[in-house]
Amino acid sequence: MITQETFVDIHVLHKQGFGIRAIARKLGLSKNTVRRYLRQPIVMPSYSPRAKRPTKLEPFKPYLLQRIDAAKPHWIPAAVLFREIKAQGYGGGVTLVRAYVSQQKPKSTEAVTRFETAPGVQLQVDFTTIRRGRHALKAFVATLGYSRASFVRFTESERQEDWLEGISLALSFFGGVAREILFDNAKCIMIQRDAYGDGQHKWNPLLLNQAKHYGYKPKACQPYRAKTKGKVERFNRYLKESFITPLAASLRQAGLELTADLANAHIGPWLAEVAHQREHGTTKVKPAVRLEEERQAFMPLPATSPSAPPIQPKGPDLSVIPFESLQHSLTIYDQLLEAHA
C-alpha cells in the first residue's frame, strides 16, 4: 500500500511525460506497482487509523473517574488529582491529567448571559504584567463597565500605593466617581476575604479611607472566576496586542527600551485617538461616545484631597490625561522614533 502523496506523484509524473520505468526509479517503486495505480486513476489509497498507544495515565483512569464521581456536585481540580495519582506511582505529566479530567467535566447547558451595568455604576480595576524580572513593567488598568472607556498607568511595581494612586488618577481622568469599584483579590488591597461573613471582606484601611473620601463601594470578584471582571481582562489583552507590542518594536528599532515613563508618555494619545474611538465589539459603540453619557451619571469628584492619610500623585498632575510622567519631553522620544522610521 502506498501513501496518498505517492499516488498523486505517480499520476503527476505520468502527466509530465515520464514513463513507467522512470517513475518507478524516481519513487523507488516496482514497475508493476506504478502500472497498477496508473490503471486505477480513481482509486486513492486511504490511511488506516493508527491504533492508540496506551499512555502512562491508563492505569489511573478508573481511580480518577471514581474521585470525580465521588466529588459531585463539586469538582476536584486537575492539579489535586495529579498530586494524588503521583503519590500512587504515576510517572507522567500534569498536562495529560488536565486533558483527561477536562473531558469528564459536565458541559454547561445554561446560556451565557453577558453582565452589563448601567452608566456610572461600575469601574473594574486590575494590574496586568507586561514584563517580569529585574526591569519589571506593569500596568494599572481601570475600565468602566458601561462605556468600556479605560485609564492606564504604567508602573514598575504593584504595591498598595500603586493601586491607590492608580484609582485616584483614574477617577480624575474620567471626571467623576462610579458607585462601585470591582477588584481582584489582591493581597495588598484585601486583607481577608469573607472575614465578617459571606461577601463581607476585610479591606485595607487605606483603601477604605479612599473609598470613604470618594464615595465608592469596593467589591471583590469571585475567586477563580476571571469573567466577573471580564471587561478589564479583555481590555488588558487589547492593550498588549494593540499598544505595547507595536510601541516596544518601534522603540527597539530606535535603540530604546520600553519603560514605564515611555509607556505613560504614549498611552494618553493612544487611548484618546485609538482605543476610545474604535467601535467596541460588544456595545457596537465607540467608548468615547458612551463615556460622555456615563459622565452624566457619575458621582462628583470631591473638592478636597483625601485626609489621613492623603493620596498624592507622584510627579506632575495627571488629572487630564495620563501621560505626563516623563524624564524628558515627549517630543524628544518622538524625534528618536521618527529618525528610525
What's the short version?
It contains twelve helices and seven strands. It has 341 residues and is of the alpha/beta class.
Helix and strand layout, with pairings?
Elements: H1 4-15, H2 20-27, H3 31-39, H4 61-71, H5 78-87, H6 94-104, E1 122-131, E2 137-144, E3 150-155, H7 160-174, E4 180-183, E5 190-192, E6 202-203, H8 205-214, E7 217-220, H9 230-253, H10 260-273, H11 287-295, H12 330-339
Parallel strand pairs: 1-4, 4-7
Antiparallel strand pairs: 1-2, 2-3, 5-6
Spatial strand arrangement across the major sheet: 3-2-1-4-7
Strands, count = 7
Low-confidence stretches: 109-113, 224-228, 308-341
The total of helices stands at 12
Percentage of residues in helical conformation: 40-55%
Strand content: 5-15%
What is the overall shape?
extended
Task: Report the major sheet.
Answer: 5 strands, mixed
Give helix and strand order, one letter per element, not per position: HHHHHHEEEHEEEHEHHHH
Mean pLDDT: 79
* Rg: 30 Å
Q: CA-to-CA gap between the ends?
A: 57 Å
Observed structural traits:
341 residues, alpha/beta, five-stranded mixed sheet, two-stranded antiparallel ribbon
Outline the structure in words.
It is built from twelve helices and seven strands. The protein is extended and about 95 Å long. The relative contact order is 0.10. The C terminus is likely disordered.
